[in-house]
Specification:
With 247 residues, the protein is α/β, with parallel strands linked by helices. It is 48% helix and 16% strand. The strands form two sheets. It has a four-stranded parallel β-sheet with strand order 2-1-3-4, sandwiched between helices. The chain has a four-stranded parallel β-sheet with strand order 6-5-7-8, sandwiched between helices.
């Protein structure tokens, strides 16, 4: 029996770097599991669209699909957009077994990726000393999603024995610039910012710009197509595939 196909479903962005990163992540997932059919898809603003990918997989003979939402926060897109897309696909293809896994979320394993990205930024900026950290994320109107970022920030700061603040690029305070300035107001001068975003785009660009304007010494790149991110995609897929099995 063939394994279910895997759709890596991103929200989508007008920034071509975002879609390129998603495709690179899918390539890494395929490299780790060459036995699987793995396809990228987007809810909006980029192609291929989700329903088009489902149609293509059904035409190719797949009758089971696990959708892994490439979302870091369990907010509106995860709670509303993804279930609506799954329901539409189910209605359009009678007999298709399709379900969404849990979102990528804020895995503790991503702290390793944050560290790697930040070390690269520090090397590029020739910075060897830090006295504070800021963890920059997208931000949400969902308070629980923002609290999850703040919890991860505390864990990350404890690993490095440095004070840390969570900051957000939209919707929720503080912005990255405000977080950096707050630390500078305490007399700290070597403040680095890690980008808790999956891919480049307008929000991470804005977060980085505000942080550097406020005096941050370095800002990391987003998580990107890191092997650890791909491993989490496959872990989510594995659970979703089991849940497709009839009981």
């Amino acid at each position: 029996m063939a394994a279910p196909a895997l759709i890596a479903l991103a929200h989508g962005s007008r920034d071509p770097r975002s879609a390129a990163t998603v495709r690179a992540l899918v390539a890494e997932v395929r490299a780790q599991r060459p036995d699987l059919t793995v396809e990228p898809a987007f809810l909006e603003l980029a192609r291929p669209g989700f329903q088009d990918v489902v149609d293509d997989l059904v035409r190719a003979g797949h009758d089971e699909i696990v959708v892994v939402p490439l979302l870091l926060s369990d907010a509106y897109h995860a709670k509303v957009d993804v279930p609506a897309a799954i329901a539409e696909a189910s209605a359009r293809h009678e007999g298709l077994g399709i379900r969404a896994s849990a979102i990528l979320g804020l895995e503790a394993a991503f702290l390793q990726v944050l560290d790697e990205r930040l070390r690269a930024a520090l090397r590029s900026a020739r910075v060897r000393e830090l006295d504070a950290l800021v963890l920059a994320a997208a931000g949400s109107s969902d308070a629980l999603a923002n609290q999850a970022v703040a919890r991860l920030a505390r864990v990350w700061g404890a690993r490095h024995k440095l004070p840390v603040s969570a900051a957000f690029a939209s919707t929720a305070p503080p912005a990255t610039g405000e977080a950096v300035r707050a630390f500078r107001g305490e007399g700290r001068r070597h403040i680095a910012v890690a980008s808790l975003f999956l891919a480049p785009g307008m929000l991470p660009d804005r977060a980085a710009e505000l942080a550097l304007e406020a005096g941050a010494v370095a800002v990391s790149e987003p998580l990107g197509a890191h092997p650890e991110v791909a491993r989490v995609v496959l872990a989510r897929y594995a659970v979703g595939a089991v849940e497709l099995v009839p009981v």
